[in-house]
Amino acid sequence: QVQLAESGGGLVQAGGSLRLSCAASGRTLSRHAMGWFRQAPEKERECVAAISWSGGRSQYADSVKGRFTISRDNAKNTVYLQMNSLKPEDTADYYCAGRSEPYSGYYYLSGSDYDYWGQGTQVTVSS
């Protein structure tokens, strides 16, 4: 059984920064592709960033490119999302997700590609 726990959300002014963390427990996900998703009220869930198991490959939604950075520390079984230059439209619940297949050298952008999900952390950006 894998549990993912997100932390680091909160209220921030536009232009500010937050760093989200996603810690895995119950089983290591250090050899598994991971992703960060978000869902705003009345909007569909979208993948904002995804990373391969080694961290060698990553991809971002166009809306966050140049502002968000996904990274991972496999020794700590933790994935991060550094969010800079935040905008009000970044306001959403953010979720991390993990893929059960190990050692994939790719990133995955669809929610259906992931098997494990955290409970989410809320990010609110005020204007």
What does this structure look like?
- This protein is mainly beta and 127 residues long.
- The protein is built from no helices and eleven strands.
- It has strands at 3-7, 10-13, 18-25, 32-39, 46-51, 58-60, 68-73, 78-83, 92-102, 116-117, 121-126.
- Strands 2, 4, 5, 6, 9, 10 and 11 form a seven-stranded mixed β-sheet that branches. The chain has a four-stranded antiparallel β-sheet with strand order 1-3-8-7, with no helix packed on it.
- A hairpin with a 6-residue loop joins strand 4 and strand 5.
- The N and C termini lie far apart (40 Å).
- 36% of the residues are buried.
Helical segment count: 0
Approximate strand percentage = over 45%
Looking at the structure, what is the overall shape?
A: globular
Please report the total strand number as a whole number.
11
Structural class call reads mainly beta
Q: What characterizes the major β-sheet?
A: 7 strands, mixed
Q: Report helical residue fraction.
A: under 10%
Q: Nearest-angstrom radius of gyration?
A: 13 Å
Q: Determine the mean pLDDT.
A: 96
Uncertain ranges: none
Topology as a string of helices (H) and strands (E)? EEEEEEEEEEE
